Amino acid sequence: MLQTTTAGSLPKPSWLAETEKLWAPWRLSGAELIRGKQDAALVWLKEQEKAGIDIVTDGEQFRRHFVHGFLEKIEGIDWQKMTEMGIRDNRYVASVPTVTGPVKRKGSVHGDEARFCRAYTTHQLKFTLPGPMTICDTIADAHYGKRADMAMAFAEILNEEVRELEAIGVDVIQFDEPAFNAFMNDVKEWGVAALHRAIEGVSCKTAVHICYGYGIQENIDWKKGLGSEWRQYEEIFPALNASRIDQVSLECANSKVPLSLMGLLKDKEVMVGVIDVATSKIETPEAVAATIRSAMPYVDPERLMPCTNCGMTPLSRQTAAGKLASLGAGAAIVRKELGQKPL
Ligand code: ZN
User: Fold this and answer.
1) What is the largest CA-CA distance in the chain?
2) Which residues, chain by chain, have CB under 5 Å from ion ligand 1?
3) Cα separations (Å) of 256 from 150, 184, 228?
4) How far is the CA of 211 from the centre of ligand 1 (A)?
5) 71 vs 222 pLDDT, higher one
6) What pLDDT, on the 0 to 100 scale, is given for residue 23?
7) In what order do the strands lie in the sheet with 92-105?
8) Which domains, ranges and CATH numbers included, belong to the chain?
9) pTM over 0.85
10) Residue 343 pLDDT more than 60?
11) Could you read off the pLDDT of 156-185 as tens digits, one per residue?
12) Ligand 1: centre distance to CA 178 (Å)
């Protein structure tokens, strides 16, 4: 009950990449870079274990960005042909590569990374991948013509990767789909179908993370225009509750999402964001416990997984470590109240 986890990404140490920045360039190269990424993953595996996080991740230390880290090893993408494109329904402009032919997985993308983490932790291990819709919203298309078709092609290669990660011993595969909050109709029309294609034949736990984005200025500005109640989830949760995905990750702490919307996920495990990633202020364990309690009228403790609202990449290492500690300690407070011995 109340198994803790995070949305996935954690800050890079200052010796590995520029800090407090998305898409930060690496500070190492060649064999040194590979070793550096592994060392950084080790740091975060241990920080998560120390904080009492039950389901740990590599902190996405092996990739510069959660979408392009996957795409870098896919055939059919032209990285010389960069296109300026409004992404997440034009919330921000990004320079993205272009799909110029059928996409194909040349070989393992994250296999070595998952194997490395699996060898260093006995905790449950989660691996995050970009979801098909979010991939299609972070790349330009000069080949498929229809976004739904391109998403299905990416879902097929994600499925190959997921099967490999499962065989390595990954316990939870999470797809990050921030685009689900921007294109709600597409979620119902083809977004969930693409996720189903990506998890075909897989028996480990599967999850989808849907958030209001990293705590960067563009997202803070966007949220200001969303009104006093954020009801995007209301449109997509019924479809997700009916889906074959096991877990849904949502934003809750300091959010204007009505708590009652969690009630739409009654057949799912719900990763409730109890850590705000848009502020460097570290929540106290008591504040985390209060947010967990506020979700309990809608999600029973057996299905409730305290989590972060989103990834913590843009925060400082110290802040992220502090937030991890509070996440673990806050969940422990509520477990104690519920009469459960520490896991
Ligand atoms: Zn997120």
Assistant:
1) 58
2) 211, 310
3) 33, 18, 7
4) 4
5) 71
6) 83
7) 74-87, 92-105, 140-141
8) 30-75+106-337 (3.20.20.210)
9) yes
10) no
11) 999 999 999 999 999 999 999 999 999 999
12) 6
